[in-house]
Design a protein that fits this description.
CATH superfamily of the largest domain in chain B: Amidase signature (AS) domain
Radius of gyration of chain B: 21 Å
Shape of chain A: flat
Strand content of chain A: under 5%
Largest sheet of chain B: 11 strands, mixed
Mean pLDDT of chain B: 96
Number of helices of chain A: 3
CATH class of the domain at 5-43 in chain A: Mainly Alpha
Oligomer: heterodimer
Low-confidence stretches of chain B: none
Order of helices and strands of chain A: HHHEE
Number of helices of chain B: 15
Helix content of chain A: 25-40%
Number of domains of chain B: 2
Low-confidence stretches of chain A: none
Largest sheet of chain A: 2 strands, antiparallel
Mean pLDDT of chain A: 92
CATH topology of the domain at 5-43 in chain A: Histone, subunit A
CATH architecture of the domain at 5-43 in chain A: Orthogonal Bundle
Shape of chain B: globular
Order of helices and strands of chain B: HHEHEHEHEHEEHEHEHHHHEHHEEH
Amino acid sequence: MRITREEVLQIAALARLALTDAEIALFQEQLTAILDYAASLQRLETKAIPPTTTVLPLHTALREDIPGQTLPQAEALGNAPHTQAGYFLVPQILLKEQL
Amino acid sequence: MTSPADLTIHEAAMLLDEGALTSVALTEAVLERILTMDSAVHAYLTLTPETALEQAAQADVVRASGESLPLLGIPLALKDNLSTRGIPTSCGSRILEGYVPPFDATVVRRLKSAGAVLLGKTNLDEFAMGSSTENSAFFPTRNPWCLERVPGGSSGGSAAAVAAGEALAALGSDTGGSVRQPAAFCGLVGLRPTYGRCSRYGLVAFASSLDQVGLLARDVSDAALLLSVIAGYDARDSTSLPQASFDGAAIPRRNDLRGLRVGVLADYEGVGVQPAVKQAVLAAVATLADLGAELLDVQLPHSEFAFAVYYLIAPAEASANLARFDGLRYGYCAEAGTLEELYRRTRGEGFGTEVKRRLMLGTYALRAGYYEAYYIKAQQARTLIRQDFEAAFAQVDIIVGPTSPVTAFRLGERVADPLQMYLADIFTLPQALAGLPALSLPCGFDEQGLPIGLQLTAPALEEACLSQVAYAYEQATSWHTRRPNLI
């Protein structure tokens, strides 16, 4: 099954990836080849087989709800490219008329 | 013996205890080796010689006071996807360039508590996605056995460092073979522990249901010692096993394997196994029989699907895990007018080609309308792969086969064809999908003098059995004593 250029663009949008034209062409070819190979799974009869989401016995890991040490604000923000007044700074999300 | 840098951990520890060597002298010898070799090998992304020498001096003081710790004064390296407080952790990616974690991974904390000297952070395929370390955003690492060849991957920097005497041992991570395959390519012992044995807290996530911290060492005793230090339950990792701790010193050493049932993988015809690899593995199996083991043929009929299963599940999990790299909280940030554009450009410019390829693949597999056909189907096939091992381990105690179908290939040889590159992992994927412990150890050399790895696989939490068998084989052979001819 051939992946179309439009599908590559749709997936890139979902994955929040800006791709160059060369990458779009490359991934169109390579995703087609890899997914063709993956299609071999369709030969397996799996109707009665439960999926494995984890190899561990399923359980919920619980612990006592005790306050521990947290990072000081300066350290938590220390790696951020842009901060302001103790917050992570992002480009404006809502326009004035949307408020 | 030319330099203390070539010692095993247990050899060095004996000299340190006798007072014939100090940790400072040992660390200086390793730093000297790094200075002369790493401009050719390129194993390290970040070196911390000052703190290493401070830790070594401290270790000498502690030892003089009569205190004993399992790794006191031993210089080790860490793969650069393990978080280190105050030391850059890049995952081999531009998107994390300059990122300095405010915390240590649990396994790093455990090494420090055991008295280890930490030399620096080693190169890897970006976010551990690759089999050659050529996908590092910074530079490829070279194989100390032949500088035109890759060290394997993704823990290629850790493997090359240990093989070149640039560390006595190192930690790596294994998602689909990333510790075992570089161990095979570099003539080392590489161990992927049982899923849940070692805490993943602070290991930058790639595929959470598969990722496991692993180790690279010069012999089986060192591997068992290191595992004893890094294994253990951790409340900070919800997939940590309550019975995770491991005591290598408590395992009786055996020089024969009487009573052991060894399953020999019979069905790897047609996978393109290099003749020298096949011969070496057959000879190793004969050695196990000479040691008294009973040989039985085993089949893992669904292993042929492991590749397709892995390359759907791992990218799907990666596409969720790597969503955190948004340019806002750490790492690289592109200039953009809108938030959507900032995300797209930061990730488009910050991630390399292999990472983007896998994020695309994973996003495709998880997309509405395709989820059942790809992701659920792969998870069902994963169950069949696990059931194959359960059936095999009803008959045998351990399974033996090659680690990699080939020895170290040349740089650039497989970059253009990702499918061929992925197929090199065919023997290491099933254990990862089943969460089982597996160990690679040297079992010979090909006609070009390149190391060959033998892979042993055990049931969950049977690392003791793995090390017993590996130790007995190691005692009966001398492959592990060979070192590359460094220029």
